[in-house]
Design goal:
Layout: E1 10-15, H1 19-29, H2 32-35, E2 41-46, H3 55-58, H4 66-79, E3 83-86, H5 97-103, E4 106-109, E5 115-116, E6 129-131, H6 132-139, E7 155-159, H7 163-173, H8 186-193, E8 199-203, H9 215-221, E9 227-230, H10 240-248, H11 250-265, E10 276-281, E11 284-292, E12 295-306, E13 312-321, E14 325-328, E15 332-333, E16 351-352, E17 355-357, E18 363-369, H12 372-375, H13 381-398, H14 410-419, H15 427-442, H16 462-469
Parallel strand pairs: 1-2, 1-4, 2-3, 4-18, 6-14, 7-8, 7-14, 8-10, 9-10
Antiparallel strand pairs: 5-15, 11-12, 12-13, 16-17, 17-18
Helix pairs in contact: 1-13, 6-7, 7-9, 10-11, 15-16
Length: 471
């Protein structure tokens, strides 16, 4: 039976409270159909963590100044009161798909991409070889990762030339005291404080004109106190495609100019050497991680050259670097969701403009996707907004033909969660946790010789987060 005769609000569940999910909710509430009174909507967002914001809270380095602005914008959307938030509720464990479909007319998956993409080279399984996404989860205080991280290496390799690689390398090389102004948890500060690191190497497969990070990320590298940026003249190779990119793309031009200036500046007379170094290498493809007694002891790369199109090809020359830890940051990958067709190779839910597709390639009525689980882990916040706009457009086009939910009452989902003893958190609860973390920051007593003002200290333990939220 279709929704054409439904007088009640159109009920939508969104799985995931990162930017993708919140933008989708915001766009739906502000759609022309809602503004014209053609349809009323009732939206519930479900999040597996007790706190909202997804990768903005658990996937971005804490020393990014733009985090606060993005989080404030997301806060304003949920703080209006027309979108309900249910935290600490995991899809597929606490709620099955059939149950969601009985309570909601449509379900939107916005679960993002949180796993590390694989790097299949010999030695990747050695002790001391880590995924960059796992490290990010640790330093961002994700409740589902261990509290300790093995920071024993003096020399570290980071493989990748995207923003995550730069985040990982910057946090590894930065002095822990300089991160105290951020929201890092106490266990993270203690771990980084004890790190013996002296050299962090970032390796990219192509040249300086083909890097995937942004000018902002690049500039942030140079702002780390007592950390030298080291570059290598032999890595500065530019082909026809590189020249064309620098002429047509201002961002590429800025980044190449910045890198070239750094290369010149590091050879200036009178420079005082820092205690730590962050090395930027280009035209390197990893081929093998070396091990001693089961632990990382080095890494081998093949030198590359550009082929004229901006792509790289091997030269047959190999270089070994002595390192005791390797972090791969070669991309994120989405995780499979129960009862939803999944493309494991691309790490996405197969879809057509946001409409979820089944195994046979046809649309599954009432199911939608947005964000990285829809298109893969590419693009910035602006792309996520565009994604949500497309998905919500499809949803509104389909609205009158969708099956009607059997139990559309707003209180019925509450009753189900409570009957199962699920300790879900709410928006009111998040505001309590938010205030608690800020209070911890304001009342922080710095160590002797360390003068710092902390905006917040992030709570890590899930049970503690829930308890504070439900006080």
């Amino acid at each position: 039976m279709a929704n054409s005769s439904v007088a009640r609000p159109f009920r939508v569940a969104i799985i995931g409270s990162g930017p993708a999910g919140i933008y989708a909710a915001d766009i739906l509430t502000k759609s022309q159909e809602v503004a014209d009174g053609e349809v009323q909507v009732s939206i519930d967002i479900f999040e597996s963590q007790p706190a909202p914001y997804g990768l903005i809270r658990y996937g971005v380095a804490p020393d990014h100044p733009r985090i606060k602005g993005i989080m404030n914008a997301l806060h304003k959307v949920l703080d209006r009161g027309d979108i309900r938030f249910f935290g600490n509720v995991t899809y597929g464990r606490d709620l099955a798909l059939a149950e969601l479909r009985s309570f909601y007319d449509a379900v939107i998956f916005a679960t993002g991409a949180t796993k590390d993409a694989e790097l299949n080279i010999p030695g990747i399984e050695l002790d001391g070889s880590y995924g960059g996404a796992d490290f990010v989860s640790w330093y961002d205080g994700h409740p589902d990762v261990a509290r300790e991280w093995p920071l024993h290496a003096k020399e570290v390799a980071v493989i990748g030339n995207g923003n995550v690689a730069l985040d990982v390398a910057r946090v590894l090389s930065k002095h822990a005291d300089d991160l105290l102004t951020t929201e890092i948890p106490d266990n993270v500060y203690a771990g980084l404080k004890s790190s013996p690191v002296t050299d962090v190497h970032i390796f990219g497969r192509r040249g300086p004109a083909q890097v995937k990070f942004t000018p902002l990320e690049l500039r942030e590298l140079s702002q780390s106190r007592d950390v030298d940026i080291v570059l290598y003249e032999e890595d500065f190779d530019f082909d026809e495609a590189s020249d064309a990119a620098m002429k047509s793309n201002n961002q590429v031009k800025i980044m190449v100019k910045t890198l070239t200036n750094w290369l010149v500046e590091e050879h200036e007379e009178g420079r005082v050497a820092a205690s730590r170094r962050l090395h930027l290498h280009f035209l390197h493809t990893p081929v093998e991680i070396a091990g001693t007694d089961g632990h990382v002891s080095g890494i081998r790369f093949e030198r590359n050259e550009l082929d004229g199109t901006g792509n790289a090809r091997g030269t047959g020359e190999f270089i070994d670097y002595p390192v005791q830890a390797v972090y791969r940051a070669v991309g994120y990958l989405g995780s499979e969701l129960p009862e939803v067709h999944f493309d494991a190779r691309r790490g996405v839910i197969p879809n057509d403009g946001g409409r979820v597709l089944g195994v046979d390639g046809t649309q599954v009525a009432g199911l939608y996707a947005t964000g990285w689980i829809k298109r893969g882990p590419v693009g910035l916040i602006g792309s996520t907004k565009g994604d949500a706009l497309e998905t919500i457009g499809c949803l509104l086009e389909d609205r009158l033909s969708l099956p009607i939910a059997e139990h559309p009452g707003e209180e019925e989902i509450l009753e189900l969660l409570e009957s199962r003893g699920i300790e879900f958190t709410t928006w009111e609860g998040w505001n309590k946790l938010d205030a608690h973390e800020k209070h911890l920051g304001a009342s922080y007593e710095p160590q002797p010789g360390v003068e710092v003002s902390r905006e917040r200290i992030k709570i890590v333990e899930r049970e503690q987060m829930v308890n504070i939220s439900k006080k």
